[in-house]
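Saturday, quiet lab. Running sequence design on the structure tokens for the scaffold JK sent over.
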């Protein structure tokens, strides 16, 4: 084994505080990135859902107004 004891492993000949601080910063940043990504994903899905509901509402209102529309024949010249 490279180290005689667990405490020697933690100290790493004086480099331990730097090494463990780097590991802690890495894991904290990764956890923060995961949380941020999940929140952004949830917000994007919610925005898409609202957009689909808005489009469905517009299509329903257009279908209702289209049923009351009247059509007239238009004469087009065949020149």
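Result came back. Writing it out in full:
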């Amino acid at each position: 084994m490279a180290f005689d004891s667990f405490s020697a492993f933690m100290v790493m000949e004086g480099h331990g505080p730097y090494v463990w601080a780097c590991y802690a910063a890495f894991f904290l940043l990764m956890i923060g990135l995961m949380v941020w990504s999940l929140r952004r994903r949830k917000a994007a899905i919610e925005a898409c859902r609202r957009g689909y509901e808005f489009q469905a509402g517009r299509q329903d209102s257009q279908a209702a107004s289209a049923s009351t529309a009247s059509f007239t024949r238009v004469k087009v010249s065949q020149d």
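Notes for JK: Residues 21-55 form one domain. The chain has a mean pLDDT of 86. Ask whether to fix the surface positions before the next round.
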